[in-house]
Design a protein that fits this description.
The complex is a heterodimer of chains A (about 575) and B (about 170). By secondary structure, chain A is mainly beta. Chain A is about 15% helix and about 40% strand. In chain A, the strands form nine sheets. In chain A, strands 1, 2, 3, 4, 5 and 6 form a six-stranded antiparallel sheet that branches. A five-stranded mixed sheet of chain A has the order 7-13-12-9-10, with no helix packed on it. Chain A has a four-stranded antiparallel sheet with strand order 16-15-14-36, with no helix packed on it. In chain A, a hairpin with a 4-residue loop joins strand 33 and strand 34. About 10% of the residues of chain A have low confidence. With about 170 residues, chain B is mainly alpha-helical. Helix content of chain B is about 80%, strand content about 0%. Chain B has eight helices and no strands. Chain B is globular, with a radius of gyration of 18 Å. Chain B starts with 5 loop residues before the first helix and ends with a helix. The chains are: A mainly beta (about 575), B mainly alpha (about 170). At the A-B interface, helix 1, helix 2, strand 21, strand 22 and strand 25 of A face helix 1, helix 2, helix 5, helix 6 and helix 8 of B.
Chain lengths: ~575, ~170
């Protein structure tokens, strides 16, 4: 091999290592909020300082009144107030003892708030969350993408609740028009948005009820009012500025009993969204009024195989059918950080040790307790990928950690206690997904990467030493369609694998003749990292962002709300 | 009353920040994390860069200019942060997350560990050039702009860096 060839190989290795390392970096979800808060502080300061510096004698008059107001700025910088012909909408009932049922921004759970509060108390992270006006001014302009609606027209704040009316300056005028009343409830130290209503009280949502469950397509209705007009109906993610879907109502007015729009969308992974309905202003065509409420996306109904187990935060966590964490398996972290898990007939097998180098394969009951050592990696090596067959045969891929980096071996223990290993003296080739036992008890399948390509290799546990055997476990599959990121053996020994296609993730099975069948498609261009299939064909798929989907062969994939990064899954 | 144009320019900057954040925040944090090996510090650095970009928006105007400014700011601030950490001799930065699962881990831990360890041993300039070239996929001209060095220097650092990595990894096999 020439130096040029070796440099090219090095460039590929570096590119892959950088991409893989970078993929493991998940920025916190509050980056935009933190930036906006810092910008907002300066912008607000500028807004106050600039007139003084430029005009010297201008007096800025702030007017705060109870109820809806329209505030007009005149050329002399003074303001006048015009009451709106309105009756402010009623705030949702606060639930100060627990996390507000209708709360959705900036947090959807008490756990998220607790995490923020720890940072808030210790280091002052995102202090704006403790200010109801700042929360409102972050939510409406940036998270609902109503960028001009950021002027405080009115506020009514008690110890436990707040209503903040925001408006915008009508184009070509100095009139500030009230657009929305944001309703907030104080939960511990944070102010949580529980909904928003139109200042006039006319634009309301009749169905679904606030916080109700719903899924795509979602029909939203409300009573007609006013003259001929349309409303825009959006379904957005609750905690990020992501528009999931939108639709327009038909024309409606006072003579219309009900307006209606049906929105198709892909649910966000956290299970919560917000329905936003807005009308246009006849004055300038910008947003007129706006109302919003929480929606809970329908989760998969319980199915055979549920609940499931996964690795979350370095321990084995038990999850309900909908993905809700039900608590860690006691004792699973007693030998270090857990990195992988596989259940066989009520026994959890898992890799544990250092977070980046699991040195042991252990087992314990699904009920927790003490664990049993199944296998240890050779000194200087870690276990990356393993499988346990129904009759307790184990196989795993060892890779070098630290000074041994760059080499590995595939280890296969049969039921009689015999052990064979196939050396991988230099990487690549490397087993990047798997290994898994076939039903015959002789062969082990794994995805072997050979640089930028690879194949589903089929190893003979009784013979052969080549890390790249000629036998292909799924000869009909073209890896140009997507590189497998996770493989699994169904209880009947059938090989399943998950690939990233460039536009989605697909789960495929491979029959005995080596022909693949696409079983499930997840509409996210993610990287599969863990796959599990039960005897009924129920599928669990985790990606490198820590998200989990479930589905069945030929069915649709449903995102589960696991409330945090999950790195491995098993039925 | 606002000064003429004041309100418009503030809104434009706000809008630009959201647009840039949506398109580039994650990749910039990852770029900084590769340079710093510390996710929390990387986020701080990138947020600082966004705030600075907002402040400079009147001058930048164009999103492409803003992205180049952001990238340059992230690299410079990462370098300053590393220098500060060395001067202060503070505790080791919080490491980045590890490979997400055992199944996923083989290529991403065995291979990655070796390559990333060797990368961290390189001189700073070589490391920056390689990260910008092979993670951010920047051209020589873009790297030169980000690091404020000549294209020839970029080519030289890249070539020496790759050779040094290759030698380092071959020596441990």
């Amino acid at each position: 091999m020439s130096n040029d060839d070796r440099d090219m190989e090095m460039e590929n290795r570096l590119r892959e290592a950088l991409a893989a390392t970078a993929d493991g970096v998940q920025p916190g979800g509050d980056g935009l909020m933190r930036i906006q808060q810092r910008i907002g502080v300066r912008a607000n300061r500028d807004r106050w300082l600039r007139p003084v510096l430029v005009l010297g004698s201008v007096v800025v008059v702030a007017v705060i009144a109870v109820g809806g107001v329209a505030l007009a700025r005149h050329g002399n910088g003074k303001a006048s107030v015009t009451p709106l012909n309105s009756s402010p909408a009623t705030s949702p009932t606060p639930e100060v003892s627990g996390f507000p049922a209708q709360g959705f921004f900036p947090f959807t759970t008490a756990a998220e708030e607790a995490t923020w509060q720890q940072q808030f108390v210790s280091g002052g992270h995102s202090p704006w969350i403790a200010d109801p006006v700042a929360v409102s001014q972050s939510w409406v302009p940036y998270y609902l993408s109503q960028k001009h609606v950021d002027e405080v027209v009115d506020k009514n704040v008690t110890d436990t609740t707040a209503d903040v009316t925001l408006g915008r300056t009508l184009a070509g005028t100095s009139t500030v028009h009230a657009v929305v009343i944001v309703h907030l409830v104080k939960f511990d130290k944070a102010w949580i948005v529980t909904g928003a209503s139109a200042p006039s009280g006319d634009l309301t949502i009749a169905s679904p009820a606030p916080g109700a469950t719903g899924n795509s397509p979602l029909t939203v209705t409300g009573p007609g009012f006013g003259g001929d007009q349309r409303a825009s109906v959006e379904v957005r993610d609750a905690e990020t500025p992501t528009l999931l879907g939108q639709a327009q109502t038909g024309m409606f007015g006072n003579g219309t009993q009900e307006w209606s729009a049906t929105v198709s969308f892909s649910p966000s992974n956290d299970g919560y969204g917000v329905i936003v309905v807005s009308t246009d202003s006849p004055a300038d065509g910008g947003v007129g009024e706006l109302t919003a409420q929480k929606v809970t996306f329908t989760q998969a109904s319980p199915a055979p195989g549920a609940p499931f187990y996964g690795v979350q935060g370095g321990v084995i966590e038990r999850f309900g059918a909908d993905g809700t964490p039900q608590g860690p398996v006691a004792g699973s972290d007693s030998h270090g950080t857990v990195t992988g898990v596989h259940q066989v007939a009520g026994t959890l097998y898992y890799t544990t040790g250092a977070a980046n180098c699991a040195t042991e394969l252990r087992s314990m009951s699904v009920d927790g307790g003490t664990s049993t050592l199944v296998a240890s990696a050779d000194r200087g090596y870690g276990i990356f990928g393993f499988d346990i067959s129904g009759d307790a045969r184990s196989t795993y891929f060892e890779g070098g950690c630290g000074s041994n980096s760059g080499s590995g071996q595939l280890v296969m223990h049969d039921q009689a206690g015999k052990t064979r290993a196939i050396a991988f003296p230099s990487l690549p080739p490397v087993i990047a997904a798997g290994p898994v036992w076939e039903a015959d008890g002789v062969h082990v399948d794994a995805f072997v990467r050979t640089g930028m390509a690879g194949y589903l290799a089929r190893y003979d546990s009784t013979a052969g030493t080549d890390p790249m055997p000629t036998d292909n476990a799924c000869s009909g599959y073209d890896v140009n369609s997507g590189l497998p990121g996770a493989v699994a053996a169904a209880p009947d020994g059938t090989l399943w694998f998950a690939v990233q296609t460039g536009t989605s993730m697909q789960v495929l099975s491979c029959d005995a003749s080596g022909q693949p069948t696409t079983e499930l498609t997840v509409n996210k261009n993610g990287t599969p990292v863990s796959l599990a299939v039960d005897s009924a064909g129920n599928i669990l798929l985790a990606d490198s962002d820590g998200h989990v989907w479930r589905g069945s062969a030929g069915g649709t994939a449903t995102a589960l709300s696991t409330q945090g990064g999950v790195s491995a899954v098993t039925w | 009353m606002n000064a003429p144009g004041h309100s418009d320019s503030v809104m434009s900057a706000d809008e630009a920040i959201v647009t840039l954040y949506t398109a580039h925040y994650r990749s910039l944090v990852r770029l900084a994390a590769l340079l710093l090996h510390d996710t929390a510090a990387a986020e701080d650095v990138v947020q600082d860069a966004f705030v600075a970009t907002h402040k400079s928006w009147r001058r930048l105007r164009d999103p492409e200019n803003a992205l180049a400014y952001l990238r340059q700011s992230v690299v410079n601030r990462s370098r300053s942060r590393l220098r500060h950490l060395k001067v202060e001799d503070r505790k080791a930065p919080r490491p980045m997350p590890d490979a997400p699962s055992a199944e996923y881990g083989a290529i991403h831990a065995v291979e990655r560990t070796a390559v990333m360890t060797a990368l961290r041993e390189l001189p700073r300039r070589q490391r920056e050039v390689l990260v910008l070239r092979y993670y951010s996929d920047l051209s020589e001209a873009q790297i030169a702009d980000a690091l404020q060095i000549s294209s020839g220097a970029v080519k030289s650092h890249a070539s020496r860096g790759i050779a040094a990595l290759r030698n380092s990894l071959e020596s441990v096999r």
